[in-house]
Amino acid sequence: MVGSVHVNGSVNGANGTEERLDELRRLLGKSEGDLLKIVSIGAGAWGSVFAALLQDAYGHFREKVQIRVWRRPGRAVDRSTAEHLFDVINSREDVLRCLIRRCAYLKYVEARLGDRTLYADEILRDGFCLNMVDTPLCPLKVVTNLQEAVWDADIVVNGLPSTETREVFEELSNYWKERISVPVIISLAKGIKASLDPIPRIITPTQMISSAAGVPTENILYLGGPNIASEIYNKEYANARICGSNKWRKPLAKFLRQPHFIVWDNSDLVTHEVMGGLKNVYAIGAGMVAALTNESATSKSVYFAHCTSEMIFITHLLTEQPEKLAGPLLADTYVTLLKGRNAWYGQMLAKGELRLDMGDSIKGKGMIQGISAVGAFFELLSQPSLSVQHPEENKQVAPAELCPILKRLYKILIKRELPVRDILQALRDETMNDPRERIEMAQSHVFYRPSLLGKP
Q1: Does residue 231 sit in helix, strand or coil?
Q2: Per residue in 82-120, pLDDT tens?
Q3: Cβ-count burial of 360 within 10 angstroms (0-12 exposed, 13-18 middle, 19+ buried)?
Q4: What separation, in Å, do the N-terminal and C-terminal C-alpha atoms of the chain show?
Q5: Which residues are known to be catalytic?
Q6: CB 3.0–4.6 Å: which of 159, 230, 297, 342 could bond 283 by disulfide?
């Protein structure tokens, strides 16, 4: 059942900020002089921005809180990126002055001239995320040793792609064996993995974390919403939901809230997490359609009608009260279609500027989560044990057979049996049902399969 939604407390200037910090410190049992230690694992766009937001809000309380970011060492910044980074620095007087004051400007001059190699962890300390160099952040404390970063952390933010989450948290578990207290985990990852045996079900990043690191689910939360990382840091108005146990979600919602970043809380963790992965699937197709039709508003609206009807159909399989997810899912889908990296990836594929054999980790963008999500959702929904009644043919079919866009994306991206242009056939197929009929079918039949989310 989808939990009720609550808005967290208001912000009342600097004093309110320190009060929220003190409140969270008390909840975590921190005594005077004992730092509240927060670390973000992974330094993609959202993980870096999340850490920077906390640093801007609370970093000046140095005797009460420490905020750090872990990223792997050794990732070199190529010459073209170094040149672009130099231009960004010199276009922003505030950034330029900050680097000069920190005696950090000269290395960017040398890198621009090709006399020095910069590294991703090095530039992150100065506030530059490799996946988002056009949006300078505040300087960050960066750690490249994972054990040093996490062994005594009170709050760990998972900023890793879902495809890397299990591996890293399995390593983390080795460093937490001697801990007395259990850390609180906030996962930002949007992606899923399909488990087909013995019963088809979805595995989410928070479930991966719990099983890999042995952290109880009560201490793991998911934060997501219709957000573009660079815009949030530039203080465009945004909102998000933090989902999980009542003990942690309410105080954390209050702690994370800023005047331009409103955080609500919700009890239904896994369903919101899955929805965060589902919209990435259809965002790739939206990018393809936009590029292939020269940004035709009509074609994009046709695609939107069909993809939303498929998402609504899928939500009826996943939750008993899908209507409570309609707003958050559509909002997240809308912003991802407008400006997200998955839609961008679809556009670049359709324009021929990217190829499938380049993989799903793209320079300057990071991991394209929608690719693995396409495979996971299609393989899961193709299982005969989940079959539903076909609306016209009076027979049982796997749910994926009633999701023609998902099926075609799977053949394009995963099987590579069809060219990118074939996505348009999903819109032009005269045998396709009216998207309204798919929605009506979902609403008039009992499709809910609790086992998909590991529920009895």
Answers
A1: helix
A2: 999 999 999 999 999 999 999 999 999 999 999 999 999
A3: middle
A4: 13
A5: 279
A6: 342
